[in-house]
Design brief:
Elements: H1 2-12, H2 16-41, H3 53-75, H4 77-83
Helix pairs in contact: 1-2, 3-4
Length: 84
């Protein structure tokens, strides 16, 4: 939540490119963090013959949807501020 206010301030001061770069860097950091957490708590073992395509597709779709929502909130901070 605090990152959105920082991004809002940076965008309001006219620095769009640094805000987009910071958002991309924080998104990459979240992906790595969630990957580590997923590996730590992953107990289910998939058999060698089982297709994991559906699981990977839904994971990618969720990450894509989440990143699009965050990008919209970052580029239009007035919408997010109006919800609070």
């Amino acid at each position: 939540l605090a990152k959105f206010f920082i991004f809002k301030t940076v965008i309001a001061s006219g620095h769009l490119l640094p805000a987009v770069l910071a958002f991309a860097a924080s998104y990459v950091g979240v992906i790595y963090y969630l990957g580590i957490v997923g590996r730590v708590f992953n107990i289910a073992v998939t058999p060698a013959g089982e297709d994991r395509g559906y699981r990977l597709c839904s994971t990618f779709g969720g990450m894509l949807l989440g990143s699009l929502v965050l990008m919209v909130l970052m580029l239009t901070p007035g919408i997010f501020h109006g919800l609070i």
